[in-house]
Amino acid sequence: MKFLKMFQRERNSPERDAAAAAAVSSLYEHGYAHLPGVLSAKECDAICADFTRYVAKHRQEADKHVMGTGRHSRLTNMHLKSNRARAAIAKPVVMKALDAFFGDRAFVATSLFFEQSSEQALHRDTPFFHTRPHNMFAGIWFALEDVHAEAGPLQYYPGGHLIEIESIQATGTDQLGEAFNHYIGRVAEEVHKRGIKPEIALIKKGDCFIWHPELPHVSPALLI
């Protein structure tokens, strides 16, 4: 019951409706949407505190996932252990935008908590998630601290979600890596051919960033 209550939708307001509508329009046109101030600083700090407590409680296992920077690698599905994370996911302006984008009621499939940049090269999320109908998902990021250029922030290619890439066939699991690399190579080729310049998501603590499943994006290496 606590889980269901935490995901109960709050009543809409004209301001939320307008923000959600603008977010959906931006998702279709540009491939992303920026919603400022969705979480308060107190809410952000509380989610981080939940992560710290979870690590302390599971210290032996957590220590296996400490990287060279001293930070931990990503934690999957923290929202299943943190009421505060679940509350963040259910923010009305975010859910309303997603409901409109999908044309159906949105739900959470999975979540990741990052202490630092994932340091991933240019890619799309579509090879990692399969839905029926196709592409019925989106990436959602809540910044729990101010984002700085040296921290390897998300870089994205506006409009790149509109680039159509031919399907790459893999007839066996041994061909998946090659097929993936070929597909991502084609995405990068088309992005550069069209002269699409990356933008950097230097968003603020409490902001929410939503991206289209086919938006090309990068998570650069840390400089700090």
TrEMBL record:
Keywords recorded for this protein, A-Z? Dioxygenase, Oxidoreductase
Instruction: State one molecular function term (GO).
Output: iron ion binding
Question: According to its UniProt record, what is one Pfam family this protein matches?
Answer: PhyH
Known InterPro entries for this protein? Answer: Phytyl_CoA_dOase-like
**Does the keyword Thylakoid belong to this entry?**
no
Cofactor dependence is on: Fe(2+)
Q: Which domain of life is it from?
A: Bacteria
Q: What is this protein called?
A: Phytanoyl-CoA dioxygenase family protein
From what organism does this protein derive?
A: Xanthomonas manihotis
Q: What is the lineage of its organism?
A: Bacteria, Pseudomonadati, Pseudomonadota, Gammaproteobacteria, Lysobacterales
